[in-house]
Structure formats: structure tokens, C-alpha cells
Specification:
Helix 4 packs antiparallel against helix 12 and helix 13 packs parallel to helix 15. This protein has 15 helices and 16 strands. The model has no long low-confidence stretch (mean pLDDT 96). The strands form three sheets. The protein has a seven-stranded mixed beta sheet, sandwiched between helices. The protein has two domains: 131 residues, Aspartate Aminotransferase, domain 1, CATH 3.90.1150; 269 residues, Type I PLP-dependent aspartate aminotransferase-like (Major domain) (Aspartate Aminotransferase, domain 2, 3-Layer(aba) Sandwich), CATH 3.40.640. The protein is globular, with a radius of gyration of 22 Å. A hairpin with a 2-residue loop joins strand 11 and strand 12. It has 443 residues and is of the alpha/beta class. The structure holds pyridoxal-5'-phosphate. Pyridoxal-5'-phosphate binds next to helix 6.
Amino acid sequence: EVSVLKSKTDELAELDKKHFIHPTSAPKKGAQDGPDIIFSDGQGIFANNLEGEAYIDGMSMLWNVNIGHGQKELAEAANEQMLKIAYSSAFKGFSNVPAIKLAEKLASIAPGDLNSVFYTSGGSESNDTAFKLSRFYWSLKGKHEKKKIIAMRDGYHGVTQAAQSATGIPTTHEFAGASVEGFYHATPHLTNCELGDKNDPNYEQSIRYLIEKEGADTIAAVIIEPVQGAGGVNIPPEGYLQAVRKLCDEFNILFIADEVICGFGRTGKMFGVENWEVVPDLMCIAKGITSGYSQLGGVMISDTVREAIVNYEGVMAHGFTYSGHPTACAVALKNIEIIERDGIVENAKAMEKEMQKGLAYLEEKHDIIRNSRSIGLLAAFELYNSATGEHFDPSLQAATKVVDECFNRKLILRAIGDFRVAIAPPLVINKQEINDMIHIIDE
Ligand code: PLP
């Protein structure tokens, strides 16, 4: 039977090589070597290949399978809704039951006065929507010049043209050349600068400096991930997000929180901003909203922004075919029900300590592992050349090597750039399973 499954894998791999252009992948390698793995099924923190070999999904795939794999209740919720009506439009006066119920649920769990939602199909669409909503909001207020967006270096916001323009990771700009204008990047986590200390030597990289240079009258919004994910799992120092919130208030600029990774429990709170008790004006969500069981995203909108929008008598010409998709919304509702019922956020918080212990152990034992950090179940460590005390030379591809070796031992992690490795397992993970991951990294 094993050889039958093996030949099935080989057959599919050939087809993949020929016909499947993979997202965010090296196309030449894909066309030559085919996929590294073809997933077949999964359970909890495990994702299995076609031959039934179990891999620990130490990244929740793309930081999104928060409640873990194989949750039948989500399949049943989708099935039930599909049998009723799988899809209906939400344009111009049409609505549906799951989209309404989910909107109410999201309003009840989102921080502060984020009481309305605009649905999308994912994170990039959510961010593009937030930029457009910001500009729309200011033009409704008669401030037609407020169009620019300030984002952060190392921030990741997606791959649609505007989301990519906001993204502050240079390699993501290589693929298609020039992007949308009007996006500026500040260096994150310079708390003193954000607080207004012009004597700080980093002042010219701060958000405040950019606002003053470009003029607050031209800036619509600042977008920040509460904890940067794809840019390296960068956790802000205490006081940072609060300082940015104050800055936005001072200059009449909207604060957009990109909670695409942080939302739905990843950082040990339902939403990342709750770690610093900050309430944004717009909050972008996706990924964990369905734990990946269906494609859904959204922008949560504050009452102030909502009030301006709902007083507009024209047509707001922005909407996706799948905005408010009934099946996706039914899946999200069930997913949030499970997150609350099973104490998934509480588990992420409880496991934070276990993850920190494991990372401390690795740092203690291996001189090449340094600068580890984590919040909830969002973690990373860096690889250093112990002889020089510097990061390894990029040509050595240290992070990729570590990730490949872990993969060979059936643990999925993710390399970020040349020397950082991210860990973000499903939030249902237990102590023993965290120790199993640490043990493999240790090897
Ligand atoms: N924002 C953040 C913080 C992300 O991590 C991602 C994806 O990784 C996105 C936005 C883009 O989301 P999507 O890939 O669903 O378009």
C-alpha cells in the first residue's frame, strides 16, 4: 500500500510541476523539483502528507489555522449553510443570515467602538479597503487632500497593489516593480521619537517626523501591525502603540491596526491591540477569523468613521463579489464559537510561558540562537555566527537551513529573511507538543 501511495504522490507531483504556479514560491524550483509536500489531511497541530506521515504544523500553515486542523464542526457549519444557500450577494440591499450574525458577533468581541464590519475575502483586500475607507472618510469631512498612508518598515500588509505598497519589506517590491504612490515608511518601535523627542538621533525615521515633513493635512492614516509578523515577529516596546494612537489623535490621522495575524487569539488576547489597550479607528482582520477553513476578511470600523459613511447618500462603489459570503461567514461564526467555548485564547496565553521556556533553553544551549522573542503563540529566534557575534552571512542561508532540517524531522517552521526563524503553532497546542517542537529545533 505504501508504494501505491508513493506512486500517487509522484504522479501528482508531476502534474503540480507542469500546471501549478505556486504563490510566493520560486517558480524555477517548483517547475524542476515539484512540491516539497502534498498535504492530504490533518488533525490538531498535525498536517499529514499523502503517505500518512504526520508533520507538526509549527506555523499554523500561514499563521492562520488557529483552532488547528480537522475540526469537523467547521465542515458541518459550511455544509449546513451550503445546503441552504451557499452564496448570495450582499450588494445594494441584499443580505444574509450568517453575515448579519457574524457582524453582530464581531462588534461584540472587537475592542472599543469598532462596531461595524466591511467584509472582504482576505487580508490584502482588507488593507486596501482600509486605505480607501480612510481616504473616503476624510473626503466626506471635506479634507480632500488627506490621502497619504504611513506604514512601517518591515511591516507586511499583503500583495494587492496598495497593500504591497504599504508593505515595508523591500523584497516584496521586486516582483512587479513600481507600486502605488502616496505610501511612506517609518521605522517602527522608536518610542522616544513617537513621543516627540526631536533630540533622539533616530528622529528622522519616526512617524512624527514623516507627519511633519509631509504635512498632517495630506495624511489619511497610519497602518501598523500590533506585532509585526512576516517582517520578523517584532514586538513593540511598552508604550509604543499608545504613543502612535496619541500621535494620530494629535494630527487628525486615522489609526489602522492590521490584525490579520494577531487577531483571534494569536498573541494571547482576542486582538493584538488589547495587549496595549489601544483602540484603532479601523481594524483589518482575516486569517484566524475562520482559522483558514474558508476565505474571509474584514475591516472593523469605529462608530465615528461609520457615522460619516452612513450619512453619505451616494453609492459607496467598493465591494467584492465575496463580501459577506454566507458560507464563509457561517464558518467564521462557528470558529469564533469554538475559540470562546474551548478557551483557545486562554490556552495561547497559558502556552506563552511554555514557548518562552523552550526558547530560553535553546538560547542557553546553542550559542548560535539569540534574540528569541514571543507573545502568546507568535515567536521567533535569530541565528548568529558565534565566532563573530554577528548574524550569519546571508550567503549561508542559515535560516533556510534550520527550517529545512526541521522539515526533514517533520516540523514545519518558516524562515524570515536570512537569519530569522518564526514559530506560530495552532493555538490548541499543549505543553508536550511545544516541547516536541523545541526538541526538534534543539537537534
Ligand atoms: N496583513 C498581514 C499582517 C499579513 O500577515 C498578511 C498575510 O500574511 C496579510 C495582511 C495579507 O493577507 P492575505 O494573504 O489574506 O491577502
